[in-house]
Specification:
The structure is a single chain. The chain is of the alpha/beta class. The protein folds into 2 domains: 275 residues, Aminopeptidase; 146 residues, Aminopeptidase i, Domain 2 (Roll), CATH 2.30.250. It is built from 12 helices and 21 strands. The strands form 3 sheets. It has a 9-stranded mixed sheet, with helices on both faces. Strands 5, 6, 7, 8, 9, 10 and 11 form a 7-stranded antiparallel sheet that branches. A 5-stranded mixed sheet has the order 12-13-21-20-16, with helices on one face. The longest helix is centred in the middle third of the chain and has 15 residues. About 2% of the residues have low confidence.
Length: 442
């Protein structure tokens, strides 16, 4: 059993080592295997043994891990926990190279609801998944992470944009392509244009990627890079912030913090009852994909665990899902953005999220279960309801409730600057959530 300090140190390392969903799942697998979890493949027949631990991935960016309990699953149901592996970011376009005024830039797409202003003037790196052809012409994949700052999105100086602090508008097509390097050949100085390399299937970027792959995977035989899924990320490491180190600052707290906490709790679950963790990709863009919560991944695994549609229906009736996704802490400079009676405070415990219009899936019964768990763990808990005159975000919770029919609760740790390149949560709240989830899985 770790203490809070060691727990947060492990959280920091996980956040720093997980710049993309692919890396996050890879790191979750390392945790799980250290606790005896065995890999399954969706393409194989499964023979599950009572009391054993398993995990299965899809696309390398979503993962389901479960303890297959000794007690009959019809008697216990399944204690489920859900989170998501993706975070808002800037993703590289397929033909990304832009050469302008002797600089090489990469065109990017905005992934999810990105708060764009904080991306300017940061030390950015690049990571993701590479699809390549080896020397025997087989198609394979591997991960890449440059790890060091290789790009920046420079702000336009205030002298050239006097209204920047009043009327700053960001055009995501023209204003945010990161700058990587100075190009010796200045033949394209007149205007922003896609380079010849860009129109010939990204050969410049692929050369850069090939060089990096040889550094990181020199044992691989790589004939050519066929495609990629790459994201820019901030290289500043997770750290404590505040006069008394009250806060944790990091990229991707939404929602890798919940993925980490859920993994740590499941690792320590008993093997008497069946427990399950699902961490899905593509939540930030609606969850409608093969690897998203609206896809078939979770339902398929549950069907294979239970054996028949009737058994699954009976099991689901006795089961519960906790959807863990960060909550909005009341901001001291913008307190009027919150309902006065429902403004969560950082380091005052995890937050039960409620919405009458089912943007969150919590109800009075699932909320009561969580309150009892928190009381048992001697951990505080809070409530969040969005202002009635404001829109409300959502999570995988309502999707799981709809697709699976399972009783669901939405919770999360209170967070500042959600969807910024660097978010802020409390130094106690992840630990509090872990303690509660341990009771849930006990």
């Amino acid at each position: 059993m770790p203490d809070m300090s060691n727990f947060n140190s492990d959280l920091f390392r996980f956040l720093d080592a997980s710049p993309t969903p692919f890396h996050a799942v890879q790191n979750q697998i390392a945790f799980l295997e250290s606790y005896g979890f065995t890999a399954l493949s969706e393409s194989d027949a499964w023979t599950l043994q009572a009391g054993e631990r398993y995990y299965v991935t899809r696309n390398g960016s979503s993962i389901i891990a479960f303890v297959y309990g000794k007690e009959a699953i019809l008697n216990t149901g399944i204690r489920m926990l859900g989170a998501h592996t993706d975070s808002p970011c800037l993703k590289v376009k397929p033909n990304a190279e832009i050469i302008s005024q002797s600089y090489l830039k990469l065109g990017v797409e905005v992934y999810g609801g990105v708060l764009l202003n904080p991306w300017f003037d940061r030390d950015l790196s690049l990571a993701g998944k590479i699809v390549y052809q080896d020397d025997s012409n087989k198609i394979k994949t591997c991960l890449v992470d440059f790890k060091k700052p290789i790009a920046s999105i420079p702000s336009l100086a205030i002298h050239l944009d006097r209204e920047a602090n009043k009327k700053r508008h960001i055009n995501p097509q023209t204003d945010i392509p990161p700058v990587l390097m100075v190009i010796d050949d200045a033949s394209n100085n007149d205007s922003d244009t896609e380079s010849e390399a860009g129109t010939s299937n990204s050969s410049v970027l692929k050369d850069i990627l090939m060089e990096q792959l040889h550094k990181q995977h020199n044992e691989l035989s790589i004939n050519q890079i066929l495609d990629f899924e790459l994201s820019f990320y901030d290289t500043q490491n997770a750290s404590y912030v505040g006069l008394n180190e009250d806060f944790i600052a990091s990229s991707r707290l939404d929602n890798l913090l919940s993925c980490f906490v859920g993994t740590q709790a499941l690792m320590r679950a008993d093997n008497e009852s069946t427990s399950l963790l699902v961490c899905s990709d593509h939540e930030e863009v609606g969850s409608a994909s093969t690897t998203g919560a609206q896809g078939t991944f979770l339902k398929s695994v549950l069907e294979r665990m239970t054996g028949s549609a009737e058994t699954l229906t009976r099991v689901i009736d006795q089961s519960m899902m906790i959807s863990a996704d960060n909550a909005h802490a009341v901001h001291p400079n913008f307190a009027d953005k919150h309902d006065a009676n429902h403004g969560p405070i950082i380091n005052k415990g995890p937050v039960i999220k409620v919405n009458a219009n089912q943007r969150y899936a919590s109800n009075c019964e699932t909320g009561a279960v969580f309150k009892v768990l928190a009381e048992t763990a001697q951990v505080p808990a809070q409530n969040f309801v969005v202002r009635t005159d404001m829109g409300c975000g959502s999570t995988i919770g309502p999707i799981a409730a709809t697709e699976i029919g399972v009783k669901t609760l939405d919770v999360g740790v209170p967070t500042f600057a959600m969807h910024s390149i660097r978010e802020l949560s409390g130094n106690k709240d992840a630990w509090y959530l872990f303690l509660i989830l341990q009771k849930y899985f006990a």
